[in-house]
Amino acid sequence: MRLKELRKARGITQLKLAMDLHMNQNTISRYETGEHEAGYTELIRIADYFDVSIDYLLERTDNPTVSK
């Protein structure tokens, strides 16, 4: 998942991201290390937060554009 890459590119800390998404910082850390996988609802929230497609977030495409 491109979560860490997106977060760092925007200068956002794990704590800030966790607070903005109403999650625990440990959860964000586990997503970034691959220790835990985000569920469908969490993927949507993260993709919406960064304004990218879920496919981009999951590294299924290199095009970050959200199709609408």
Description:
With 68 residues, this protein is mainly α. It contains 5 helices and no strands. Helix 2 packs across helix 3.
Short description:
With 68 residues, the protein is mainly alpha-helical. It is built from five helices and no strands.
List keywords for this structure.
68 residues, mainly alpha, 5 helices, 56% helix, 0% strand, globular
Q: The biggest beta sheet, please?
A: none
What is the molecular shape?
Answer: globular
CA radius of gyration? 11 Å
Class inferred from helices and paired strands: mainly alpha
Helix content: 55-70%
Distinct helical segment count: 5
Give the low-confidence spans.
none
Distance between the termini: 22 Å
What fraction of the residues are assigned to beta strands by DSSP? under 5%
Number of E-type strands: 0
Q: Secondary-structure element sequence?
A: HHHHH
| Mean of all residue-level pLDDT scores | 95
Question: What topology emerges from the helices and strands here?
Answer:
Blueprint: H1 3-9, H2 14-20, H3 25-33, H4 40-50, H5 54-57
